[in-house]
Specification:
- The complex is a heterodimer of chains A (254) and B (269).
- Chain A is 35% helix and 25% strand.
- Chain A has 254 residues and is an alpha/beta fold.
- In chain A, a hairpin with a 6-residue loop joins strand 9 and strand 10 (216-221).
- Chain B has twelve helices and no strands.
- The two termini of chain B are 16 Å apart.
- The chains are: A alpha/beta (254), B mainly alpha (269).
- Chain A binds chain B through residues 55, 57, 75, 77, 79-81, 83-85, 87, 89-91, 100-101, 104-105, 132, 135, 152, and chain B through 1, 167, 169-170, 172-179, 183, 187-188, 191-192, 194, 269.
C-alpha cells in the first residue's frame, strides 16, 4: 500500500502570556492508503493537536507534514474534518448542509451534486433531504455530518471523537454506520478517541501516545477478519487481548 | 413527523382544558387591571379625591383626543414623531450593524476601539444634546441624531456580542471546508445570528422612541414630545396625558411589528 500521510519530526509548542506548553515533541507517524488509524493516549497528550496540524489549522513549530507527496501549509480542503458535535447549520436543509463545502469551494457541479445525492440516498437519508437538522435524531445527524465531510471527496478523514456526544446505544450503531461508509467509499481516516474499545472496534492500527509532550509510544496492529463490522469485532476473542494490551500501555503512562 | 390524527386519553383533554382555563383567567385579569385602573382614575377625579386639573382623567383624555383629531393636528404630531423614530431606528440599525461587522471582521480594530465603545456606551447621550443642536441646528436632523446616538452603540455592542458567540468548532469546520473570512461571515456567522439580531431590533425600537422624545424635548416645533412639553408648560395636563397614551399605542404597535417579524423568521428556520 502507498503512503498517504507522513508526519516527521513534528514539534508543537503553544504560546500563551503566562506559559509555554510543549504539546508534541518529535512526533513521527505514517498512514497508508485506505488505512483506518486510531490515536489514543492520556488526556492532554495532544491527540487533537495532531488533527489540527494535519488539517493545516496549526503549523508545526518544527518538522513537516506531507499529504500525498505535498506538504501541508495552511488550511487544506484535501482533508475532511469531523467533530465531536455534528455542527450542522440549523437554518439549512440536510441537502444544503451536505453541499456546504462544495458551494464554498465553488465546486457545485452536476457531477458532485449527483455524488452527494447518491450518498444521501445510499445511507438512508433520502427522505430527509428537505428537512432541517432539528428533525433528525443524534445518530442521523452524525451521519449527515459524515456525508458533508465526504461530499468534497477529501483524501483523508480526520475524526475528532465524533461519537463521544452520542448515548451508548446510538454510539455503537453510528460506529457501524461510519465504519461501513468509510470502507465502502475507500477512504483513509484518523480517529482520535479516549475510548479504547472504540479504537479496537474500528481501526486497522492503534497508535498510543505518551503523556505530554506527546510522541508515539507504541503502535498496535489489529488483525481482525476484514468482513467483521465494529460491533461484531467486539465479540471476537482477540478483542479482549487487544484491550488489555492497550490498557497496560496506557497504565504505564498515568 | 407528528401524527395529527393521534388519539389522546381523557387525561390529556383534561390537561388541555386546564391550560386553556389558565390562559383565559390570565387575559381576564389583565383586562380587569386596565379597566380597574381607568375606573379608579375616573372615579377619583369625578369625586374630587384627585384634582382633574393636575391628574387629568380618562374622559378628559378621550375628549382631548377627539378635539385634537378634529383640529387635525394630532395626526400630524403623531406622524412627525413616528417618522423621526422610524428614521432613527433604521439609521442606527444600519450603522450599528455595519460597525459590528467591521469590528468582528478585524479583531485588531476591535481591540483598539474596545475602551471607546465602553465609554460611549456608559455616557448619557442626552449630555450631547446642546452640541448636536449647535452642529445640526434646531430641527428634525437633531431629533433623529439624538435617536441614532442613543441606539447605535448598544446595537453595535449587542450584535458584536452575538457574532462572537459562534462556537470555535463551527469556525474551524468552515476553515477545513476552504471558506475564507467573508464566506465564514456570510454563510455562518450572520445567518446564525438572525434571531439575536431581531431581538436586538426589539430593544432598538424602544430606544429609538426614547431618543426621539428626548430630541423633541430639546428642540422641536411638532411631534408628541413637543405636545408633552408644551402641555406641561401651559398646564394643559389633558394634552400631556393624551400624548402619552398615543405614544404608548404607537410604540406598542411598532414593537408588535418586530415581534411578528421574529415569529415569522423563527418559523421559517
Amino acid at each position: 500500500m502507498e503512503k498517504l500521510l507522513e508526519i516527521s519530526g513534528v514539534n508543537l509548542t503553544y504560546q500563551s502570556k503566562t506559559s509555554e506548553t510543549v504539546a508534541l515533541s518529535d512526533l513521527d507517524l505514517e498512514i497508508l492508503d485506505n488505512e483506518f488509524v486510531s490515536i489514543v493516549g492520556p488526556s492532554g497528550c495532544g491527540k487533537t493537536t495532531i488533527l489540527s496540524l494535519v488539517a493545516g489549522l496549526l503549523s508545526p513549530t518544527k518538522g513537516e507534514i506531507v499529504l500525498n507527496g505535498e506538504k501541508v501549509k495552511g488550511p487544506t480542503t484535501r482533508i475532511g474534518y469531523m467533530f465531536q458535535r455534528d455542527n450542522l447549520f440549523e437554518w439549512l436543509t440536510i441537502q444544503k448542509n451536505v453541499t456546504l463545502g462544495l458551494s464554498l469551494q465553488k465546486k457545485k457541479t452536476q457531477e458532485n451534486i449527483d455524488y452527494t445525492n447518491n450518498l444521501i440516498t445510499k445511507y438512508g437519508l433520502g427522505d430527509f433531504k428537505k428537512h432541517t437538522p432539528k428533525e433528525l435524531s443524534g445518530g442521523m445527524r452524525q451521519r449527515v455530518a459524515l456525508i458533508r465531510t465526504l461530499a468534497t471527496r477529501p483524501e483523508l478523514l480526520l475524526l475528532d471523537e465524533p461519537f463521544s456526544a452520542l448515548d451508548y446505544q446510538t454510539r455503537l450503531l453510528v460506529q457501524d454506520d461510519v465504519y461501513k461508509i468509510i470502507k465502502s467509499e475507500n477512504k483513509s481516516a484518523i480517529l482520535v478517541t479516549h475510548d479504547i474499545s472504540e479504537a479496537i472496534a474500528m481501526s486497522d492500527k492503534v497508535v498510543i501516545l505518551t503523556q505530554r509532550p506527546g510522541k508515539v509510544k507504541t503502535i498496535v496492529n489489529l488483525n481482525f477478519n476484514k468482513t467483521l463490522t465494529p460491533f461484531e469485532r467486539r465479540n471476537q476473542p482477540e478483542f479482549m487481548e487487544y484491550f488489555n494490551q492497550i490498557w497496560k500501555e496506557l497504565q504505564y503512562e498515568e | 413527523m407528528k401524527n395529527k390524527k393521534q388519539q389522546f386519553s381523557e387525561l390529556h383533554y383534561k390537561f388541555i382544558r386546564k391550560l386553556r382555563i389558565q390562559t383565559v383567567v390570565v387575559h381576564t385579569i389583565r383586562i380587569l387591571l386596565l379597566v380597574g385602573f381607568l375606573g379608579i382614575w375616573e372615579l377619583a377625579t369625578a369625586t374630587g379625591a384627585l384634582d382633574p386639573f393636575i391628574a387629568s382623567s380618562p374622559s378628559r383624555v378621550v375628549t382631548t383626543f377627539v378635539d385634537l383629531i378634529k383640529n387635525s393636528n394630532l395626526l400630524h404630531h403623531s406622524w412627525v414623531t413616528l417618522y423621526e423614530t422610524i428614521l432613527a431606528f433604521l439609521i442606527s440599525t444600519g450603522i450599528g450593524l455595519a460597525l459590528a461587522i467591521v469590528l468582528y471582521m478585524i479583531p485588531f480594530v476591535r481591540r483598539i476601539l474596545e475602551p471607546y465603545l465602553v465609554v460611549l456606551n456608559s455616557l448619557p447621550k442626552i449630555a450631547l444634546g446642546p452640541l448636536i443642536i449647535v452642529w445640526m441646528g434646531a430641527g428634525t436632523k437633531t431629533i433623529v441624531a439624538m435617536g441614532v446616538l442613543i441606539c447605535v452603540i448598544i446595537t453595535t455592542i449587542n450584535m458584536l456580542h452575538g457574532f462572537c458567540q459562534i462556537e470555535d468548532d463551527k469556525i474551524m469546520l468552515m476553515k477545513t471546508m476552504g471558506a475564507n473570512k467573508i464566506q465564514t461571515f456570510t454563510r455562518l456567522v450572520f445567518p446564525a445570528n438572525i434571531p439575536s439580531l431581531i431581538s436586538s431590533l426589539k430593544i432598538n425600537v424602544g430606544m429609538a422612541w426614547v431618543g426621539v422624545i428626548m430630541g423633541e424635548y430639546l428642540t422641536s416645533k411638532a411631534g408628541l414630545g413637543y405636545l408633552i412639553v408644551y402641555g406641561g408648560q401651559v398646564f394643559k395636563l389633558d394634552l400631556v396625558m393624551t400624548s402619552i397614551v398615543v405614544l404608548c399605542i404607537l410604540a406598542g404597535l411598532m414593537y408588535g411589528i418586530i415581534a411578528l417579524a421574529e415569529i415569522y423568521v423563527n418559523k421559517k428556520r
